[in-house]
Design a protein that fits this description.
The chain is mainly α. The protein folds into 2 domains: 193 residues, no CATH class; 51 residues, no CATH class. Helix 9 packs parallel to helix 11. Bound molecules: zinc ion (ZN). Zinc ion binds next to helix 3.
């Protein structure tokens, strides 16, 4: 086992960060999504009944603007906005393809979500689901107060900005906040699932990871390979949350400042943990994470062909000006890695 993995496994603050991330994931998958989806399906059914035209629109612009001329989309828009707490300023049209409202429940939900979603696709995350619950009036009842939702959003933000370190005191407070929400929402979904989720959280909190004789005596899953897998999953989620957070920022100066802050804290972390560096390099490409040492080597395909015998200079994939030509390049890593190429702002 590498030294840096051993150190992480004995670092209480890092383990607190991991556990909080895991608890948030359990909250999302087992409580928030089933809860939101159940109400969303009922709401979508009501919207369908209120649509007298009953046909899929063919004429509206693809995305990025509210429908104005078409009767079907305008009917849907008006009925959806009636349930929005801030219809004037709170709708991010870049999130949505209004044409698919009648066939996609989550496309309707995205009308209530912060900027940063892609039209036509959706993968639930804690922030967007909580914002949907916060801003859509179908969730307004006495059980779920705005304060509780904002408290969990704060936990999610604290995890993201923590530099992958959480003190014992904050860890306890975060878990209490999350469990409070779980206990309230458990009455709104299938109770068996909610009980299982709470049990998972309690089990996770009891786990104590220590290194003895260079082996993980007890880990989240019982062995170090699975632990590593969980760790990589959490770091992936961390990157996804950061990416989404950045995409939700309207102001260019704030965007640059926050991006730099994230890059700085992540660079410190990956430098201290070289066993995760390649993983960080791959996942961090999207937010422009830079690595000073051990750059992966990129060669042109024909450079790899011995017939040509060319010896072109190595190209670093994070050289921004190289992206346009990088589409025909292959990455040559020490390890097997998926290929990533950034073209402009898109990750292929
Ligand atoms: Zn339309």
């Amino acid at each position: 086992m590498s030294d840096s993995l051993t150190r992480r496994l004995n670092d209480e603050k890092y383990k607190n960060w991991m556990k909080t991330g895991q608890v948030l994931k359990i909250l999302l998958d087992d409580i928030l999504v089933p809860f939101a989806k159940k109400r969303l399906i009922e709401f979508h059914e009501c919207l369908k009944q209120k649509d007298p035209y009953k046909k899929i629109c063919q004429s509206c612009p693809e995305k990025k603007e509210p429908p104005t001329s078409c009767k079907t989309c305008t009917t849907w828009k008006n009925n959806i906005l009636k349930e929005h707490s801030n219809p004037q300023r709170g709708v991010k049209w870049t999130n949505i393809d209004p044409k698919i409202w009648p066939k996609s429940i989550w496309e309707v939900a995205k009308t209530y979500m912060p900027k940063g979603q892609q039209p036509g696709v959706y993968s639930p995350d804690t922030s967007s689901v909580l914002n949907f619950i916060l801003l859509c009036k179908i969730f307004k009842d006495k059980r779920i107060g705005d304060k509780m939702i904002k408290n969990v959003l704060q936990v999610r933000n604290a995890v993201m900005h923590s530099g992958m370190n959480i003190s014992d005191e904050h860890f306890k407070a975060h878990v209490n906040t999350i469990k409070q929400m779980m206990n309230i929402l458990r009455t709104c979904i299938d109770d068996t699932d909610a009980i299982a989720a709470l049990k998972d959280v309690d089990g996770l909190l009891k786990v104590n990871i220590k290194i003895i004789d260079d082996a993980v005596k007890q880990s989240v899953s019982g062995n170090s390979t699975q632990f590593k897998q969980k760790e990589e999953n959490l770091i992936s989620q961390h990157f996804m949350a950061i990416d989404e957070e950045l995409r939700s920022i309207d102001d260019a100066a704030t965007y640059e400042r926050m991006k730099k802050d994230f890059q700085k804290s992540l660079s410190v972390f990956f430098k201290a943990n070289p066993d995760l560096e390649d993983f960080g390099r791959f996942k961090g490409a999207r937010i422009g994470l830079q690595f000073e040492e051990r750059q992966p080597i990129v060669r042109r395909r024909d450079d790899l062909d011995p017939w040509w015998g060319w010896n072109l200079p190595y190209v670093r994939p994070n050289d921004r000006e190289m992206y346009p030509v990088a589409i025909d390049l292959e990455l040559d890593y020490e390890y097997q890695q998926p290929i990533y190429v950034e073209l402009g702002s898109h990750l292929l």
